[in-house]
Specification:
alpha+beta; 11 strands; globular
Length: about 300
């Protein structure tokens, strides 16, 4: 019977259905407060999908605390929880760190969010604060009030005094983890790593990808777990983006030069077509399986 139900889920069909495809998907998924009754599965892409059978990261663990609990975004596939356990245990062994403060993962059933992220939809994205945890006994109220720290200097070209060797070690450990597809950091962090990382083995740096923002946290994106047949890992791959190198090249330099002070652009002959944002998606934009995830009890 379980096999039959799972095959129906993969086909995107089931006894329950959604009356209309018109309501916005983020309103529907944002209203769910618990996971769906399915075998855990990431469905679709990181920015257009949902999460079946997601599990909740415990609010407090031996070496982590989930932050901003009012958002109810500490849900992921089991592999995500396993990764947080591994990385936070490593972080707890670093001087001055008792573990990790974990920010947003996904909503209980993934999907587009009411606010904030465009991605984080399938239970495989994790925001980890740059703030070294001094205490893992924060109350729920404390976790709403406390803020992370920025490691980016005001000129946006270099790291500031908050950056430490421990940050670098934790990022390296994350990048070396086989479950990780890529990690988004503020560009100055990548610049600093290109300067300081050991020359003998820098292959892990391929996974460290510069992206605007991300100065108060780093964003870990995991690969599709084995067996998740309707999950789509991101393309291009990090190897393609870095042309087989470690990313310490002219594409990185762009982030701290032309990105901050763009050359004057020529006016296009005709305006680019308007694209719909993630908060305009309806259920028709998501994989068919997400209908079953949404209506599951």
């Amino acid at each position: 019977m379980r096999t039959i139900r799972w095959m129906a889920f993969l086909a995107g069909v089931g006894a329950a259905s959604i009356a209309s495809a018109d309501p916005l998907a983020n309103q529907l998924f944002g209203a769910k407060t618990s996971g769906s009754a399915h075998v855990p599965q990431a469905v679709g892409t990181y920015a257009k999908g949902c999460g079946a059978g997601l599990v909740q990261l415990p609010e407090t663990g031996p070496t982590w605390q989930a932050m901003r609990l009012s958002r109810n975004r500490n849900w992921g596939v089991p592999e995500t929880v396993d990764f947080i356990e591994r990385l936070s245990a490593f972080a707890a062994r670093q001087p001055g760190w008792s573990g990790l403060y974990v920010g947003d993962i996904s909503q209980p059933r993934g999907g587009p969010m009411l606010s904030g992220h465009s991605s984080h939809q399938v239970g495989l994205d994790i925001d980890i604060w740059m703030l070294p945890p001094k205490s893992l006994r924060l109350s729920q109220n404390d976790r709403e009030k406390i803020s992370s720290i920025s490691v980016r200097a005001s000129d946006q070209r270099r790291v500031n005094g908050n950056w430490s060797a421990q940050h670098a070690a934790i990022l390296e450990a994350a990048a070396r983890d086989d479950a990780v597809d890529r990690i988004f950091v503020t560009p100055p962090v990548k610049v600093e790593l290109c300067k300081s990382a050991k020359q003998s083995d820098r292959s892990w740096m391929q996974k460290i990808r510069p992206l605007y923002g991300h100065d108060t946290h780093f964003h870990v994106r995991l690969k599709c777990p084995k067996g998740d047949t309707v999950c789509e890992t991101q393309t291009p791959t990090v190897a393609q983006l870095s042309k087989g190198g470690n990313g310490c090249d002219e594409t990185l330099e762009w982030w701290v030069t032309d990105y901050l002070n763009p050359p004057k652009a020529t006016k296009p002959s005709k305006p680019a077509p308007k694209t719909r944002g993630v908060r305009e998606y309806t259920m028709a934009d998501l994989p068919n399986q997400c209908q079953n995830v949404l209506v599951s009890r």
